[in-house]
Specification:
Elements lengths: L7 H13 L39 E12 L2 E9 L9 E7 L5 E8 L10 E8 L5 E8 L5 E8 L10 E2 L18 E2 L5 E2 L5 E9 L2 E9 L5 E3 L6 E3 L4 E9 L6 E8 L4 E10 L4 E4 L18 E8 L5 E8 L5 H7 L1 E2 L1 E2 L3 E5 L6 E5 L7 E12 L3 E4 L8 E10 L7 E2 L9 H7 L8 E10 L7 E10 L2 E9 L14 E5 L9 E9 L2 E6 L4 E6 L11 E6 L5 E11 L4 E2 L5
Parallel strand pairs: 1-21, 4-38, 28-30
Antiparallel strand pairs: 1-2, 2-3, 3-4, 5-6, 6-7, 7-8, 9-11, 10-11, 11-12, 12-13, 12-14, 15-16, 16-17, 17-18, 19-20, 20-22, 20-23, 23-24, 25-37, 26-36, 27-33, 27-37, 29-30, 29-36, 30-31, 31-32, 33-34, 34-35
Bound molecules: 2-acetamido-2-deoxy-beta-D-glucopyranose (4 copies).
The site of one 2-acetamido-2-deoxy-beta-D-glucopyranose (NAG) has 4 residues, from loops.
Pfam families: Glyco_hydro_32C (PF08244), Glyco_hydro_32N (PF00251)
Keywords: Disulfide bond, Glycoprotein, Glycosidase, Hydrolase, Signal
Family: Belongs to the glycosyl hydrolase 32 family.
Length: 575
């Protein structure tokens, strides 16, 4: 049946109408507000650095993914959006739907300021599909007094699988900041879950001075909520906890509960997992896991405010969405007319050894693969490199490669004792892709210009720490662009692979998408996302290389590189 066709322009006009009435005081937030930049003239949205298959709306600023869910055959992605500019502000819940997590139809915003309880902004939150099949959204509203309050919203028409219109009951807010709660640091409710006692539970992020807290609330009817008497589900001495997520992974006796928080102080995310007792709402992380900055991360790069959902359509699987902000300047964003991309949706599961979570791009992404280049058993001698030829647009590609260290691990560089306790990012800053090594650095140069003046390295480097091999995986964008005002951190993690046991083999997959370099090492043990802005290595001028800047030979046992078709992002609904 033919459905209404909503042109992009109509959509923008709709947004403007919806947003003209309320005034927009500057809310207390972790984002810098630039009122002078809130312009209707967004400039050029089309840009050589826009992504082809990562999720982006046609223009303007986006941040956190919100309320992700699967309902009646349709995936819903809501996200924080500024309908007026490429800088943070005027935040609404924009809405997109998909049947495959790859191609998207943009709908009108689902939730925007209309009432005293959200007049100053509709911030992040989550969706819960209730037992009767009805979805509920819980989100943070910024009320007339600038307080952060939690509100509920329900679909207006349950027979519409696109859930276009949402109704906010008058009894909102359902969770105001209680006494002792910091009303300007109280936000981002999780998806709710039902306990054996028939009570709903959810967690809200907050802080008490320097202590970050995941506060547990309970309700019998999803309307009247009270904080659990037992206190917060968890806390840490790490500053504000934003965007908490709490969910089970594994099955049967292996089930663990994951608690993820986004640390406002570092702008990175950390997780623990452990046991959760439904009877008394106690969460105890596994002893080996640390909270906060010493903890595990989903992604060791540019990835924040993430949220998972249970995809009941597939097996079921848990799918993770996260936001990748820009690493250029605000002036660049205003000129581009857009800022922010969603990372590729990732399937997430508990590693068989129970030591960490694993991630892999959802299989649907492979439906965009086109022209294929295949290399097998090619030696990459110490100090050499070669170009992978045959891709039509190496700036929009999916590369799977398996390396094997064939010259042994004897030459691995000693691990400097001064690095013990330091994070991998510090180590990679000291030993980047251009620092010759013993075993490695070896890996890919992506988004490279023909003279290699611009290139982003994704690589491995092996250290010898008193006889134990430590493997560093790193994205090094220090040469990624001629532009010198960009944020170019070397993002890195130590990857838990025992090369002695794998016969020196280590696999890598990198999704290259113009300004996005999203890498997965060790079959999903390590993820690192970087944003880069080449000036020469754009479109079909970009090149792809394999390099080995170490003293030890390595071999590419397999390399499969694919041109990626662009995802279809439309404003028209075809059914
Ligand atoms: C409450 O949160 C705001 C925003 O982060 C902060 O400026 C303020 O110091 C906090 N107040 C207390 C008492 O922690
Ligand atoms: C919660 O219950 C479990 C088992 O029922 C028990 O081991 C644990 O000590 C309890 N925790 C608290 C804080 O009561
Ligand atoms: C890759 O190339 C090898 C050798 O040319 C061939 O045996 C193999 O089937 C190819 N793989 C794919 C997926 O095309
Ligand atoms: C993304 O942008 C960089 C560069 O401006 C900042 O350093 C990061 O803090 C920021 N990340 C997030 C999650 O806001």
């Amino acid at each position: 049946m033919g459905m209404a066709i909503i042109q992009a322009r109509t959509w923008v006009v709709f947004l403007l109408l919806a947003l003209l009435s309320p005034s927009w005081p500057v809310a207390e937030a972790s984002h810098h507000v630039s009122p002078d930049l809130q312009s209707l003239d967004a400039g050029l949205a089309a840009d050589a650095l826009r992504t082809g298959y990562h999720f982006q709306p046609p223009m303007h600023w986006i941040n956190d993914p919100n309320g992700v869910m699967y309902y009646k055959g349709v995936y819903h992605l809501f996200y924080q959006y500024n309908p007026k500019a490429a800088v943070w502000g005027n935040i609404v819940w924009a809405h997109a739907v998909s049947t495959d997590l790859v191609n998207w139809v943009m709908l009108e915003p689902a939730i925007y300021p209309t009432a005293p309880f959200d007049v100053n902004g509709c911030w992040s939150g989550s969706a819960t599909v209730l037992p009767d099949g009805r979805p509920a959204i819980m989100y943070t509203g910024i009320d007339g007094d600038g307080r952060q309050v939690q509100n509920v919203a329900y679909p207006k028409d349950l027979s519409d699988p696109y859930l276009r219109e949402w109704v906010k009951p008058d009894y909102n807010p359902v969770i105001p900041p209680g006494s002792g709660v910091n009303a300007t640091a109280f936000r981002d409710p999780t998806t709710a879950w039902l306990g054996p006692d028939g009570l709903w539970r959810l967690v809200v992020g907050t802080k008490d001075n320097h202590r970050g807290l995941a506060v547990l609330y309970r309700s019998r009817d999803f309307q009247s909520w009270a904080p659990a008497e037992g206190g917060p589900l968890h806390h840490g001495d790490t500053g504000m906890w934003e965007c908490p997520d709490f969910y089970p992974v594994g099955d049967g006796a292996q089930t663990k509960h994951v608690l993820k928080v986004s640390l406002d102080l570092t702008r990175f995310e950390y997780y623990t997992f452990g046991s959760y007792d439904h009877a008394n709402d106690t969460y105890v992380p596994d002893a080996a896991l640390a909270d906060g900055e010493r903890g595990l991360r989903y992604d060791y790069g540019n990835f924040y405010a993430s949220k998972t959902f249970l995809d009941t359509a597939n097996k079921p699987r848990r799918v993770l969405w996260g936001w990748a902000n820009e690493s250029d300047s605000t002036a660049d964003d205003v000129r581009k007319g857009w800022a922010g991309v969603q990372a590729i949706p990732r399937k997430l599961w508990l590693a068989p050894d129970g030591k960490q979570l694993m991630q892999w791009p959802v299989a649907e992404v492979e439906s965009l693969r086109g022209n294929h280049v295949n290399i097998t058993d090619r030696l990459v001698e110490a100090g050499s490199y070669f170009e992978v030829q045959g891709l039509m647009i190496p700036a929009q590609a999916d590369v799977e490669v398996s390396f094997a260290v064939v010259g042994g691990l004897d030459k691995a560089e000693p691990f400097d004792p001064a690095w013990r306790g330091a994070d991998a990012q510090t180590v990679c800053a000291a030993r980047g892709a251009d620092a010759e090594g013993g075993v490695g650095p070896f890996g890919l140069w992506v988004l490279a210009s023909d003279q290699l003046k611009e290139r982003t390295a994704v690589f491995f480097r092996v250290f010898n720490d008193d006889g134990k091999h430590v493997v560093l995986m790193c994205n090094d964008p220090s040469r990624s662009s001629y532009a010198d005002h960009l944020y170019k951190p070397t993002f890195a993690g130590f990857i838990d692979v025992d090369l002695a046991k794998t016969g020196g083999k280590i696999p890598l997959r990198t999704l290259i998408d113009h300004s996005m370099v999203e890498s997965f090492g060790g079959h999903g043990k390590m993820s690192i996302l970087s944003r880069v802005y080449p000036t020469q290595a754009v479109g079909d001028k970009a090149r792809l290389y394999v390099f080995n800047n170490g003293e030890t030979d390595v071999k590419v046992t397999h390399l499969n590189a694919y041109d990626m078709r662009s995802a279809k992002i439309s404003t028209e609904i075809d059914r």
